[in-house]
């Protein structure tokens, strides 16, 4: 069953349209270059999975199913934080394109890109503070610390062929799952839910986030540059060893030679991708993602009616279906 994003976002379509409009209005910069950099980011195509999850959880956890203004603002904050992290990632990884358009540092400079990312983090913090909910501030602000931790871990393990799947999962939590988990929990705080419900949705978001990152890393190996919106094998080129490569190393130790040479030639990336595809690594990585999706679904199925969580379950399946 192929699930398209338009099918699962029907109930929040108006809110997502409003979010797209609001993002550009929220990022107000006095300097024209900074404004142009920020505008470039929000012109890029994005599935808006993170804010969509916030809005869907808001519907589930409000008795009248009505999404509050605070929920909508949290969804916007979540997307701004995510976008800020991408700007810094692109500088670190020296990516020329993202979502099919030129990256900020490629259009302007590394300095402008770093300042644009910092500016977005600062803007998100200001809007976060204006929600006037200390528990939400505490929950979301931890994410920015986690981003930094994830980047450091990724940098330390760069081109390290001894990296374990546990190392990879920990880094993936910091870089991806932390934001989805924390924003899911923060949504329930705004809905005045009890601690058990807050924790349920935190764990749901954590597992969905881990699955999302694993699938992204599979796509980096299996998709065309056109579909990715950036060159295939970017993770390998930058020394970021992900689940498919870690599993492939178990079957094809000769990959270590290419890793130790840091994929010096473009052909080395092609060789590595061909070797990975000739193992069971892609399937093992997909199985790992599926395991986390099932853990996320189990949390919802145990406590919530199937009708109320239907769209959130579809989001979970959509994440896995991206590689079908």
From TrEMBL:
* Matches recorded under PROSITE patterns: POLYPRENYL_SYNTHASE_1, POLYPRENYL_SYNTHASE_2
Q: Which InterPro entries match?
A: Isoprenoid_synthase_dom_sf (IPR008949), Polyprenyl_synt (IPR000092), Polyprenyl_synt_CS (IPR033749)
Q: Where are the transmembrane segments?
A: none
Record protein name field: Prenyl transferase
Report the sequence similarity comment from the record: Belongs to the FPP/GGPP synthase family.
> What's one Pfam family here?
polyprenyl_synt
Q: Which UniProt keywords apply?
A: Chloroplast, Isoprene biosynthesis, Magnesium, Metal-binding, Plastid, Transferase
User: Which gene name belongs to this protein?
Assistant: preA
Taxonomic source organism: Dasyclonium flaccidum
Q: Which is a GO BP term held by this UniProt record?
A: quinone biosynthetic process
**Which domain of life does this protein belong to?**
Eukaryota
Q: Which GO terms describe its molecular function?
A: metal ion binding; prenyltransferase activity
Task: List cofactor names only.
Answer: Mg(2+)
């Amino acid at each position: 069953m192929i699930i398209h994003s338009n099918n699962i976002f029907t109930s929040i379509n108006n809110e997502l349209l409003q979010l797209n409009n609001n993002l550009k209005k929220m990022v107000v910069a006095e300097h024209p270059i900074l404004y142009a950099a920020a505008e470039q980011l929000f012109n890029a195509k994005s599935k808006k999975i993170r804010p969509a999850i916030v809005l869907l959880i808001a519907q589930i956890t409000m008795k009248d199913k009505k999404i509050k203004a605070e929920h909508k603002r949290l969804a916007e904050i979540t997307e701004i934080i995510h976008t800020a992290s991408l700007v810094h990632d692109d500088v670190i990884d020296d990516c020329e394109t993202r979502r099919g358009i030129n990256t900020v540092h490629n259009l302007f400079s590394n300095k402008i890109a770093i300042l644009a990312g910092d500016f977005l983090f600062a803007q998100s913090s200001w809007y976060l503070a204006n929600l006037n909910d200390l528990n939400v501030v505490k929950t979301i602000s931890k994410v920015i610390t986690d981003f930094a931790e994830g980047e450091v871990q990724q940098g330390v393990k760069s081109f390290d062929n001894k990296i374990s799947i546990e190392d990879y999962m920990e880094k993936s939590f910091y870089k991806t799952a932390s934001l989805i988990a924390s924003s899911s929990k923060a949504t329930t705080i705004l809905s005045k839910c009890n601690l058990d419900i807050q924790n349920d949705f935190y764990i749901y978001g954590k597992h969905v986030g881990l699955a999302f990152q694993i699938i992204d890393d599979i796509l980096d190996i299996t998709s065309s540059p056109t579909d990715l919106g950036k060159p295939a094998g970017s993770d390998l080129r930058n020394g970021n060893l992900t689940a498919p490569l870690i599993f492939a190393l178990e079957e094809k130790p000769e990959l270590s030679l290419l890793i130790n040479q840091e994929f010096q030639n473009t052909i080395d990336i092609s060789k590595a991708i061909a070797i990975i595809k000739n193992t069971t690594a892609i399937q093992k990585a997909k199985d790992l993602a599926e395991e986390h999706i099932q853990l996320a679904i189990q949390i919802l199925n145990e406590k919530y009616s199937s009708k109320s969580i239907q769209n959130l379950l579809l989001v979970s399946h959509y994440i896995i279906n991206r590689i079908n």
